[in-house]
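A reminder before we start the practical. When you read a complex entry, don't treat the lines as separate problems. The point of joint prediction is that each chain is placed relative to the others, so the output describes one connected object in space. Small molecules and nucleic acid strands, if listed, are placed in the same frame. In the example below there are four entries. Take a minute to note the order of the lines before looking further.
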Amino acid sequence: MTELLQRKMSQRAILSQDEMTVLSETLGSPITFDAGAMFIKEGVELDQSILLLDGFACRVKELPSGERQIAALHIPGDFVDLHSFTLKRLDHSILAITHCKVAAVPHERLREITETQPALTRALWFSTTLDAAIHREWETSLGRRSAQQRVAHLFCEMRVRLSLVGLADDTGFAFPLLQQHLADCLGLTAVHVNRVLRQLRDAKLVSFQFRRVRIPDVVALEKYCEFDPAYLYLERRDR
Amino acid sequence: MTELLQRKMSQRAILSQDEMTVLSETLGSPITFDAGAMFIKEGVELDQSILLLDGFACRVKELPSGERQIAALHIPGDFVDLHSFTLKRLDHSILAITHCKVAAVPHERLREITETQPALTRALWFSTTLDAAIHREWETSLGRRSAQQRVAHLFCEMRVRLSLVGLADDTGFAFPLLQQHLADCLGLTAVHVNRVLRQLRDAKLVSFQFRRVRIPDVVALEKYCEFDPAYLYLERRDR
DNA sequence: CGCTGCTTTGAAGCCCTTCAAACCAGGTGG
DNA sequence: CCACCTGGTTTGAAGGGCTTCAAAGCAGCG
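Here is the predicted structure of the whole assembly.
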């Protein structure tokens, strides 16, 4: 059940075996949600944080007009709302994009961890600051990259993140999002995302069809959108 | 020296007096930087975090083309790179917009705090998750708001944040940025920012001249850009 | 086999950019 | 004290990227 998490954490030497054990013992039994379910609602007082075990989810900000901005995409192994431990309520909702399996950690247990497990605390803290680093890269895409580069950059990011949990290789990855989801991530309309996907496909840079992203040449794609994975902090680290 | 910080922290009941004392004892002696100085460079290994005591600073992401995206604006009382404690290096640079006075906290001391001061640790963690919440709101502006709303929304946010440290009131606040800085925050060109500022001024919603933002009617401006300060987590909280 | 929801395509238009030049304020030196 | 210089602001004209609106195409599913 926590294999993914373990792989992800150990890959970066984020957690020791012992710490991993401590953390996994705090996990409640898995719960599932259907695609489209909003499993955390903006503003609601929370007393637990949720680890995504399987499926794709996102953090959505809704505007009064009904428009949406997806502020983050989450994949298996992500602690989708660990930040609710310190914030107590969220400024956005969490939406299941596909069918999702999750496990909850009570905030009380996280609090105990901050009292007794400083190294684990720092690792969890790191996880939230990494989320913030991704937010900043998305701000950069939204503010300064063309629609083509935004799409390409998102695919590059997802390839790296998914490969950390064994869900992507050099040829591509399963990516069960609608074009509307991409549009909401990238600050575009679904219509324009569709046109951009055609251009990228025609240019043989990347294709997104049948719920799958195919990348004929990773290096070429990363060069095209100036993707630099530094913001994902992949290096191993001592703590 | 740490009055601002104290005001900010105590206002939200983030820190107790004792914790405040602990934290202020970790601060090195103040250092100043000239306007335009890049006092933390992207990618450089860091062993301290910096508290902004006076002046305006920002987190800038630079693209290979030379374009810039400002990912965050910082005001007196902000821990501009507290996240470098967990990240060890940054994915962006920190730039002094005006002349700045700062104080450093060695990461070693922060590490000790995580070992011995869980409540303070949670407060510091909160501070980084609040930064992330602001990043998300900026993503929303960049992705889904018009240029007019983006400018207005930024002014609303800065008014609230500055008022927490006594640097703004209902009539406005000192805001010593160039139009180019606004453009780099909002994903626009300086030329367009200029035109938008004229429109907002003509509409009597807000004016930005002589390094000062004047807001004739705060409620009207907040309504115009659908500003909801929930993402700034202003409420008092027990921990 | 028809319904539903997503994708694709077209045409028109607007928001914002680009390029260029004028304007203006503050600081410096003759 | 004015002339000049520099950097930021303002304005105009033209163009392009993305949106909007609308409809057709298409896949999955009851």
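Discuss with your neighbour: The radius of gyration of chain B is 18 Å. What might explain this?
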